[in-house]
């Protein structure tokens, strides 16, 4: 197959490029680097079957050659990013999804949308099954991300129903792992980097809010299976293991051996109080479930950040 992956220079997009290439497919990666990092794909430059195009997907997308798949991952994904870039976030979820779907339709390619557990907002049903319609504040600060993704899902289903495009929608729950940026702003990377630097761990609110953290390799496996399945309806992918933010902080301190203290900071507006995926459908339809538990995933991610910070420190010392 030859597939287009938008958001290829991001955390998840870059891992997805690796996976498709490793399976022997050809990949066109596309990104405008608004939150991506060229280093995430530097190992792919020159690799057989990989081609990169720098482009903003809210503008007409042109790709030379045939395409069998379009995987739309472009979008700021960390709350600090989409709060800083509210309008580009709304545009990539709406205009960008429209362009990517139009391309898939024109090339008779299969389309996969990277959606999110944020479509459930601050959920009143727990854990969250795909049938839950969610509890989102459309005009709150997080609305720019949540509503863009909800629109993107509606647009995807409309192209499926009206134009007959073969589509997939993955609702991704909090995923972490190597290639997150040290300043990404999401909780796992924040805590690990703070612990390794000996800085206080920033707990927003009282730390009793919960999240369910998925290691990146598990997620990519699920996405690869979903892409090749016949399921058009939204599918949750996430690790059902649910932890409070305080438990996460304690796990990071223990695994890094850090003596950093915990610092309480104000809770961001509309921060969901709980989140846990119901993955019955992924289990049944894809035969998928996560294999990497929090402790193992954190150890792999800590190793990545330890090496990255050492390299950055060494580079700074040679200046
Ligand atoms: P990321 O910020 O690391 O990657 C997003 C990439 O999209 C970046 O490289 C960015 O430069 C690119 N991009 C943004 N707007 C673009 C545009 N207009 N044109 C071209 N490229 C553009 O984030 P991520 O964690 O890798 O997330 C990837 C996708 O997965 C996003 O769509 C996100 O909403 C979704 N998702 C991620 C998570 C998670 O936990 N990581 C959870 C739910 C959903
Ligand atoms: N959080 C925190 N400290 C941080 C970053 C995040 O306590 O330094 C909290 C945040 O308020 C939320 C949870 O951790 O309750 C997960 O935040 P993240 O930004 O990773 O993802 P999301 O809120 O989108 O689930």
Q: Which properties best describe this structure?
A:
319 residues, alpha/beta, Rossmann fold, two-stranded parallel sheet, globular, binds nicotinamide-adenine-dinucleotide, binds uridine-5'-diphosphate
Outline the structure in words.
The chain is of the alpha/beta class and 319 residues long. It has a domain at 2-176 and 215-239 and 272-291: Rossmann fold (3-Layer(aba) Sandwich). The protein has 9 helices and 13 strands. It has helices at 11-22, 79-84, 86-107, 143-163, 187-197, 216-228, 245-256, 280-286, 294-318, and strands spanning 2-6, 26-31, 50-54, 69-72, 110-116, 167-172, 175-176, 201-204, 210-212, 214-215, 234-237, 242-244, 262-265. The strands form 4 sheets. A 7-stranded parallel β-sheet has the order 3-2-1-4-5-6-11, sandwiched between helices. A two-stranded parallel ribbon has the order 7-10. Strands 8-13 form a two-stranded parallel sheet. Helix 1 (11-22) packs across helix 6 (216-228), helix 3 packs parallel to helix 4 and helix 5 (187-197) packs across helix 9. It is globular. The site of uridine-5'-diphosphate (UDP) has 15 residues, from helix 5 and strand 8.
Q: How would you summarize what this structure contains?
A:
This protein has 319 residues and is of the alpha/beta class. It is built from nine helices and 13 strands.
């Amino acid at each position: 197959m030859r597939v287009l992956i938008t958001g290829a220079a991001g955390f998840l997009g870059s891992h997805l490029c690796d996976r498709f290439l490793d399976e022997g497919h050809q990949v066109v990666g596309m990104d405008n680097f608004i939150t991506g990092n060229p280093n995430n794909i530097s190992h792919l430059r020159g690799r057989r079957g990989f081609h990169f195009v720098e482009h903003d997907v809210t503008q007409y997308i042109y790709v030379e050659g045939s395409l069998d798949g379009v995987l739309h991952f472009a979008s700021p994904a960390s709350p600090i990013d989409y709060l800083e870039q509210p309008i580009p976030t709304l545009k990539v979820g709406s205009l960008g999804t429209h362009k990517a779907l139009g391309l898939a339709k024109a090339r008779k390619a299969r389309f996969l949308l990277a959606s999110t557990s944020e479509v459930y907002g601050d959920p009143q049903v727990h854990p969250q099954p795909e049938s839950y319609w969610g509890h989102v504040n459309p005009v709150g600060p997080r609305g720019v991300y949540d509503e863009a993704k909800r629109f993107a899902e509606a647009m995807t289903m409309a192209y499926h129903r009206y134009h007959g495009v073969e589509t997939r929608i993955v609702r991704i729950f909090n995923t972490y792992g190597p290639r997150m940026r040290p300043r990404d702003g999401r909780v796992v990377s924040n805590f690990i980097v703070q612990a390794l630097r000996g800085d206080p761990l920033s707990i927003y609110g009282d730390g009793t809010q919960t999240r369910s953290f998925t290691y990146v390799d598990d997620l990519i496996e699920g996405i690869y299976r979903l892409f090749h399945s016949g399921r058009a309806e939204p599918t949750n992918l996430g690790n059902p293991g649910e932890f409070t933010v305080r438990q996460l902080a304690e796990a990071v301190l223990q695994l890094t051996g850090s003596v950093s203290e915990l610092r309480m900071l104000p809770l961001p507006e509309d921060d969901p109080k709980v989140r846990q995926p119901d993955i019955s459908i992924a289990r049944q339809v894809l035969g998928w479930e996560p294999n990497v538990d929090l402790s193992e995933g954190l150890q792999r991610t800590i190793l990545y950040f330890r090496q990255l910070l050492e390299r950055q420190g060494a580079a700074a010392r040679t200046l």
